[in-house]
Fold:
Amino acid sequence: MSDLTSEQVGALAAALGLPVTPDDLTEVTHRLNALIEVLSPLAELPLETVEPIPGLGDPPAS
Amino acid sequence: MSGAGADLAFLGARRLAALVRERTVSPVELTQLYLARIDRLDPRLHAYITVLPDAALATARRAEAAVMRGAALGPLHGVPYAVKDQFDTAGVRTTSGSRLMAEHVPAEDATTIARLDAAGGILLGKLNLTEFALGGTQHFPFGQPRNPWNLEHDPGGSSSGSGIAVAAALCGASLGEDTGGSVRSPASFCGVVGLRPTWSRVSRHGSFPLSWSMDTPGPLGRTVEDAAWLLQAIAGFDPKDPLSSREPVPDYARTLADGVRGLRIGIVRELTFGPETDAEVRDAVVEAARTLERLGAATEEISLRLVPLAGAIFMALADSDGAGVHFRWLRTRGAEYDQGTRRRLLTASLIPAAIQQRAARARALLRLEMREALTRHDLLLSPTAHQAAPPIAASRGVITSRHEVAGRFFTRRSYVTPAALAGLPAIAVPCGFTRAELPIGLQLIARHFDEATLLRAAYAYERESAWSKRRPPGMD
Structure:
């Protein structure tokens, strides 16, 4: 996945009605790109068949 | 303050309750002792946002009268405690550490507060936290919380004041809230005990939310026994929190001294021996594992391959939940947030759905991985953090590259978020000090609803080691 640019991030924020200062935008872009990069290894896992439930209702230890 | 007064203040909640019960000390004396310590020490530490001297003394006088007339006493009768300012307190402002809520005065107590009061506790005040229980606050509106072991170092968060106040004996015990390590991190950095119960074991009613599937109130105390007694007081189903569990609450004190003989403990390789773990931390944790072996537990190294990604998975999910909570205010009152909080929430608001989906599915895998490990082992063991408390200055300033983000946010969270993502109970216990005299924390993780085994192992370790007896310099 390629890096997001500040312009792209700013446009997304604007679409959601979220005010973002220029300084905010620079840092938010770094944060988003870091998150996308660090989670990229997950793309190698067979996640399609995993149901994304947080696992509520686990039984207590026996 | 006399040495004897400090000795009393550092005794911890359970021993204080025993002294009150046998009329060796009075609740009023204890409350006055802690209020005097707060007056003297808190201007340097900033553990408290709001102190309640009049209300606390009034409660203490009623508690004293109950002792004198031989009334039935709750398990924490006469013990002064304090709570993270994330928990609602009727008639007392509850800020969540934010300017946005600086004037917020709830009409009702959080369930946890009501239960601690019913157990006989005396509420001393409301404790400082990172804004809205997120990490990364740059400028604390109610004062920069400081680590009692070294004022230039981070006390951990988000329950920063909860860790500081117990470490510096500014209360008998405290309550924090752990979404992704917010009880265990300050416990570890401040050298006290911090317990994250199983998710749903303790009611979330009246606690400002961050992530509905991870938010978990939990106690901090000077000893494992203190944590056990506070958990006993707050655990159990609450009709006001429909997701709280109806599982019966066992008597934690009954099995506390049962020891660890026969327990199987898995040492998490990625967290204990990984390249991010500081050598002093690793050595202290390995020595703690050896201590548990000497006490009769069997240990072996295990691998949990997804754990190194847990910090990032957590932030993709919990932060997104938080962004949902804050969306309206982010649009209309964004400038009132601390810069660090605002940028973290803005980021979370913009995470691509594909990334969030992947993180949610990876969470389910991580959870399976941990459950599988806990079918072969009774407990998992690791450091609570990859390093001792860093300097406050290390987490200051704008982020200028994405590489900085990983260092400041993802790495350290990978130590405490696996238990949070899996909903498992976990405890932080002091297990040593660095050469710079900063505390190191051992983390134990147990099966769902098996806090009893967690507490039992932590208690056995604590009795064998002397780390919990140390006091921060200059805090007598």
Summary: Chain A has a mean pLDDT of 89.
